[in-house]
Description:
heterodimer; A: alpha/beta; five-stranded parallel β-sheet; 4 helices; 25% helix; globular; B: alpha/beta; 11 helices
Amino acid sequence: xxxxxxxxxxxxxKKGHMKVKSKILDKKSIEKAITRISHEILExxxxxxELVIVGIRNRGEYxxxxxxxxxxxxxxxKVPFGILDITLYRDDLTxxxxxxxxxxxxxxxxxxxxxxxxxxxxxxxxRTIRCAMDQLIDFGRPSVIQLAVLIDRGHRELPIKADYxxxxxxxxxxxxxEVKLTxxxxxxxxxxxxxxxxxxxxxxxxx
Amino acid sequence: xxxxxxxSPEEKTKISPKGNKVVTKKTAIWTKKDxxxxxYLSKEEIGLILDNAKSFKEVLARPLRKVPTLRGKTVVNLFxxxxxxxxxxxxxxxxxxxxxxxxxxxxxxxxxxxxxxxxTGRNLEALKTDVIVVRHNCSGAAAMLSRAVNISVVNxxxxxxxxxxxxxxxxxxxxxxxxxxxxxxxxxxxxIAHSRVARSNIWxxxxxxxNVTVCAPGKLIPAGIEKLGVKVTSNIDEAIKKADAINxxxxxFERDAAGAFPSRIEYFKTFGITEERLKKAKKxxxxxxxxxxxxxxxxxxxxxxxxxxxxxxxxxxxIAIRMAVLYLVTHAKRExx
Lengths: 207, 337
């Protein structure tokens, strides 16, 4: 069922106008979570000389950057930082509703024998992380890959588990966890929204 | 089956409730199953290919130059005309994306028994391939083929009409060298009449806001070319003088270009790009050539190998552009898909 005319789209639920159910993290608690994760990363990887942080686009890039800054504040060392764009490795490229925007991957250092901490905003099915690991292994052979996420919302479809979690949030499948960061959004917060009700479920979203 | 396409959304800037300016980056969406020519693309779509090519160029710089994006897809190179660069470039692009590649040339195939282009295309579709990259000596061949099949068709040069991926890689190289082609003076010099590269470049560059001049002996300038929004001149020094970049085209002797001027030596003397001539140009002028070069006809060997020449970089960028094109046509968002 498609609605090609824009005037029909006018009556459809507008994207980004989903019902906000609850705010689970505010600016301060995001900051705290990042600091705690940074401490945990340093504790687990004592020789920070081998540590590298790799953020997964888009939000993971900014979180990863914050972790790098936080580690610099704690230990005074700047760990190498890379960015992964997983688009080309996705297993659902032809099925995704929206066409993903392809961006550059930036890993300007050798990751072989390094301890790589992948950073993403929300851990959900685990498929993004699988893509990221596949891609990472094409870049070299890291000695360890660990995973840090701001939110773990459950519903895994693959045997993947995060090593560092900002907050565990049990969710229902019809909910959406939205992470907003000042680098790209107007505020720092994490909210849980509900997808529009059953009646509208098959309708396309309006941009 | 007729395919309908969704429109690309435009660039938006919205002001958030707190007054911060949030720029929603232009998200042109690729909706076409084919790439037939730059005439049929919007400025945004050309920009999307160029943006994607940047990411694919990064893939080519990785230690492992391959991504699994087109795994399980098959790309057929259907070439009715000889080609080195374009065919190998498309083949490499497809292989870098993990697609399977089949090369088909006129010689030794059923084309020689008289099979028509449309029949060949339908058979390739029945063989469950996904993309046909076609080069043909007739203008409009790619468009005709694309109407006959539901799989993607990429034009790798059709007659005198268009060679979109060449123009895209030319623009990509210019963007890399000069930042942005908008407002730049770009001269296309040589066999304009027979050149599909010239036409694609004119469509692309004028859409992106460059000032294009074409320069050739009178007989090699097709009638009405100025209607495409280009300046026309037969004075080589005038074409070079203000140019930020020149794209020198091959004299296409196989298409009777030789009839347009008395001799190769005379053409070289009056229109050939030499170091002597470039002294009158901007110091950092970018010199391009789509290849293959006729050294000593349209360009001297010193210029072709000189500091201003980006001819080999063009070849490298060609793979990135073709990867972007193959990626986009196979992942086109169709409204009813």
